[in-house]
Amino acid sequence: MLMLYSYLDLFGVADNNPYGLKVYAFLNLCKLGFRHEHILDTKDAPRGQLPYLQDGDKTIGDSDAIIAHLIARYALPIDDPRNGSWLVWI
User: Fold this and answer.
1) With b meaning 16 or more CB within 10 Å and e meaning fewer, what string describes 69-80?
2) pLDDT tens by residue, 5-63
3) 17 in Cβ contact with 51 (< 8 Å)
4) Which of 21, 43, 73, 78 could be a cystine partner for 15, CB 3.0 to 4.6 Å?
5) Element (H or E) spanning 2, and its range?
6) This prediction's pTM
7) What are the φ and ψ backbone dihedral angles of 59, each rounded to 5 degrees?
8) How far apart are CA 82 and CA 90, in angstroms?
9) Measured between alpha carbons, how far apart are the two ends of the chain, in Å?
10) Count of other CB atoms within 10 angstroms of residue 60
11) Alpha carbon distance 76, 70 (integer Å)
12) Cα separation of 1 and 34, whole Å?
């Protein structure tokens, strides 16, 4: 199971950091099952910062790298212009 580590929630928002919120929203939009754990200690984070994702034995830091990993590994069509998904935003 995917495990997202990010900063604490704030005022009902899943993460008080925009990068963590971006990954959280992406996971939900793609309907990927994941666990979300709020932490403050970044000593285990690959880049010493949050968010980071554990996918099996892989640990990925940086929100853009996380999203790129998820798209590649799970063949997510969310930004694939061949399926017309980008038309939804116009």
Assistant:
1) ebbeeeebeeee
2) 999 888 888 888 999 999 999 999 999 999 999 999 999 899 899 999 999 999 999 99
3) yes
4) 21
5) strand 2-6
6) 0.84
7) -120, 125
8) 15
9) 34
10) 20
11) 7
12) 6
